[in-house]
Amino acid sequence: MPKVANIQDTNYLVAQLDEVSPVPCPCGLARRAFAVPGNDTATLHMVEIAKDSRTHYHKKMTEIYLVLEGKGHIELDGKIFPLKPMTSVMIKPGCRHRAVGQLRIINIPIPAFDPNDEWFDD
């Protein structure tokens, strides 16, 4: 069975997250499913949050976080909210954010993740 179906050949995609190689991101390490050419709908990331995640924002993308493991907090436009398993957060474009603590989350970027839509104030 293929890890990811070719988007031009099907109207579906399949990914095995534990077989997707992690890549660095402002929050730690992300395994990005469905990040393939031709898919601009949405992606799904499993992210290992590092304690020193960097505040950033997106101009076009909305992100939905679901905490799977760990405890910590999230900073949203300067306000702090606690995080624990099964906490979910919707982060709209323009919201400066960062997660703090040792956490494993699912992140669903909509539209699909675009590395050119990561912005930093510093």
What is this entry, summarized?
With 122 residues, the protein is mainly β. The chain has strands at 23-25, 28-33, 44-49, 62-76, 79-83, 88-91, 97-110. The protein has a single domain (17-117), classed as Jelly Rolls (Sandwich), CATH 2.60.120.10.
Give an account of the 3D structure.
With about 120 residues, the chain is an all-beta fold. It has one domain (about 15-115): Sandwich (Jelly Rolls). Helix content is about 0%, strand content about 45%. The protein has no helices and 7 strands. Strands 1, 2, 3, 4, 5, 6 and 7 form a 7-stranded antiparallel beta sheet that branches. Strand 4 and strand 5 (about 80-85) form a beta hairpin. The termini are far apart.
How is this fold's topology laid out?
Elements: E1 23-25, E2 28-33, E3 44-49, E4 62-76, E5 79-83, E6 88-91, E7 97-110
Antiparallel strand pairs: 1-2, 2-3, 3-7, 4-5, 4-6, 4-7
Rg, Cα atoms, Å: 14 Å
CATH topology term: Jelly Rolls
Q: By helix and strand content, what is the structural category?
A: mainly beta
Count all strands and give the number.
7
Q: In oligomeric terms, what are we looking at?
A: single chain
